[in-house]
Amino acid sequence: MEIGINYRQMNKSTNGFLVISLDFELLWGVFDKVDHKEKVNYFKNTRKVIPEILGLFSEYDIHCTWATVGMLFNENWEEWRMNIPEISPNYKNTALSAYNYGKALNSPETEFLCFAKDLIQQILNTPFQEIGTHTYSHFYCLEDGQTLASFKGDLENSIKLAKQMGIELKSLVFPRNQFNEDYLKVCYELGIENVRSNPTDWYWKDTQNDSLKNKIFRTGDAYLGLNNKSYKLTDLNIERGKPLSQKAGRLLRSYSANKFLNNLKLERVKSEMTSAAKNNEIYHLWWHPHNFGDDPKNNLKDLHILLEHYKQCTQDFGFQSTNMEELNLIVRNIS
Question: Which Gene3D superfamilies match (predicted)?
Fold first, then answer.
């Protein structure tokens, strides 16, 4: 990972920062919710759109953390079988197990849905991109049946496969945003220096709760901006023996054919970005690359609009782009 920020010149009031993290999963992120046969074109589009996202990031000097499901590091199903850990999560809901699913799905024609070593290498070859982890198996840290031991084994597997590509994992995003405070110590012991935590809004606190009320408020928040999504650099606290917890701000929702809602979404993000830039705050934007799979052209157009706005914020207010590990280094440098 290239470093593009002079940390020694940073102080507590110099700049605002745009942090982008992407949950890179392919089928492993949604296998329990979709029929993979109906998502073939969707994931083919996803694989094609990732190099285009990287191209835009290069054009605008965007630094990004790609929280990557460890199973994507495998070349094929044969290698995947060889890398099943000794201890795997024993979820009460067995449909959540990526291991059970993979054993049933195991066929050459499905490998493009589940493995992406070539794309990981492209990310690695792009300046200012950090490869982080989304656990090995898209591990659910709050589900009944999983344990600390199975989480540790899962994370160790991701670390092992990443090291085989010369990657040292420093940042973690909990799948489905199931943030588990009890697991932070083992993350730190295994070399994870940063984790993405959830927004503080009440409708984000219980990420297992898909109640209609929560869905309405999460969706409405994307368009109406119920409150400010950025925060001060001084709000980040280093705790002994734990990774730095970096709060997510805004989920970038995919393109909507409803022009009014789509423009409302973009204006919401632009307004929040401007506010963060003006007030020297951190604005953490995140999404899944596969969110662009249904309409790559218009999703990339939306991203281009937002990156143009970022460029204007850079010119007007000195706004800077960082990935999660770079932000960690900034915080530790000024502490």
Answer: Glycoside hydrolase/deacetylase
